[in-house]
Specification:
Helix content: 25-40%
Structural class: alpha/beta
Strand order of the largest sheet: 22-23-1-24
Largest sheet: 4 strands, mixed
Number of strands: 24
Radius of gyration: 21 Å
Number of helices: 12
Shape: globular
Distance between the termini: 5 Å
Strand content: 15-25%
Mean pLDDT: 97
Length: 427
């Protein structure tokens, strides 16, 4: 699909989709409950569809209700899937599932699409090998057999917090107690805190013994009597807020002011850039266009903000530095290379020095419409970031591969038009 964006002032409100990060965790917790559980605010997307396939494959059921909620009927322990399980392009689904499905003690095969099977799994490979358990990664599948026992696990915190979450989800179901000892640096700590918060909401506890050690009591059970509501996604709010900062005035609807999501730091980043967000009486967050000034930003705890932060820095006055950007190369695309290539078509330059991005902003000037189409690189966050950048061009901008937004925000372009930005989608 191609999206043709005609630049213009943006003004209006966008309902931010429910948090995909929280929904993954809540779905799996509900799928392990001993009694039915109702979830509100689980939005359709390709990644969430992958997790729904997974819970159904291991014996749980999920049924949409007339009021828009999801009724999940869980199983106390997962069953081994009867066939290879397709995780789509969802890294969260795959990495959260590995320790859970290892509990079955039977061989399991996970498959995926895009770059998913090439993304690093060395942390799990090491943990399985240390316990004499099979674990093999190939170009088209991941094969393993458990069970991982209760005990002490040592793992790196620098690759992805998803490995920590996977273990946190599974270890409480074992009879013995466990410890997770994390080798520093622990990046994306807020995502670990999200896992702990969701587990607590489902009656399961794990706690920090110190800054890098998690204690996980065994013999626990997931339980939830009241409905669980998934709040708005701060990761997606970043695109709405950035659009306002660059091209008009936008309001982000549906956010939780008490959110623990790491990507809520986007509002702090915008304030430091000079576009101070304002929380209104109705709970929405307003961001108005403002002259932006360069700064230094750290992606260690919020790597998903990388593409849109690059766009913001490109239109700031002065030189910005984005630290701890290396993990962007291991996402749905190499997000550093992808954004460098596409922003260059707009006359914008992003330089990479090791783990740091250096961006000399254009001071807020508009960009000439590119002579060629921008490419979405099969990456939802790249497509959405480029759409925001396109709002500052002097003429229409075409983005190919725009269907990638279905991974996390299928209605992104329809919602974008509600702010007055003209978008035409073509086959």
């Amino acid at each position: 699909m191609r999206a043709v964006i005609t630049p213009g002032a943006a003004e209006g409100a966008m309902q931010v989709p429910p948090s995909k990060s929280i929904a993954h965790r809540a779905l799996l917790a509900a799928a392990l409950c001993e009694q039915p559980c109702t979830l509100a605010g689980v939005a359709a997307s390709e990644d969430i569809a992958a997790t729904l396939r997974a819970l159904r494959a291991f014996g749980a059921a999920a049924e949409a209700q007339p009021d828009g909620t999801l009724l999940v009927r869980g199983v106390p322990l997962p069953q081994a899937p009867d066939a290879p399980l397709d995780c789509g392009e969802s890294g969260s689904t795959l990495r959260f599932l590995v320790p859970l499905l290892a509990l079955t003690g039977k061989p399991v095969t996970l498959t995926g699409r895009g770059r998913l099977m090439a993304r690093p799994q060395e942390v799990y490979a090491g943990l399985f090998a240390a316990r004499g358990l099979p674990f093999a990664q190939s170009a088209d599948s991941l094969r393993f057999c458990g069970p991982l026992p209760a005990g002490t696990y040592r793992l790196s915190g620098a690759v992805s917090s998803q490995f920590i979450t996977g273990l946190l989800l599974a270890l409480p179901l074992l009879r013995g107690d466990s410890l997770l000892r994390i080798d520093p640096p622990l990046e994306s700590r807020p995502y670990v805190e999200l896992t702990l918060a969701v587990q607590a909401a489902f009656g399961v506890r794990a706690f920090w013994q110190d800054e890098l050690t998690l204690a996980v009591p065994g013999s626990q059970h997931y339980r939830r009597a009241a409905p669980f509501a998934v709040p708005g996604d701060d990761s997606q709010a970043a695109f709405v807020a950035a659009l306002g900062a660059l091209s008009g005035a936008t309001r982000c609807l549906g956010l939780d002011p008490a959110s623990r999501q790491g990507d809520r730091v986007i509002f702090e980043f915008l304030a430091r850039l000079g576009a101070a967000p304002k929380r209104l009486a109705d709970g929405s967050v307003l961001v108005r266009q403002a002259p932006l000034t360069a700064g230094e930003f750290d992606l260690a705890d919020c790597p998903d903000l990388g593409p849109i932060l690059m766009v913001l820095c490109c239109f700031a006055a002065g030189t910005s530095r984005i630290l701890h950007a290396g993990r962007l190369r291991l996402k749905e695309s190499d997000r550093i290379a992808a954004m460098q290539t596409e922003l260059a078509k707009l006359g914008l330059v992003v330089e990479c020095e090791g783990d740091t991005l250096v961006i000399r902003g254009n001071g807020g000037a508009s960009c000439a419409a590119p002579r060629e189409a921008l490419c979405g690189h099969n990456d939802h966050r790249v497509v959405m970031a480029l759409a925001v950048a396109a709002s500052r061009c002097t003429g229409p901008v075409t983005i190919t591969g725009a269907e990638a937004v279905a991974k996390s925000w299928p209605n992104f372009f329809a919602d974008l038009q509600k702010t007055g930005v003209k978008v035409e989608t073509l086959p």
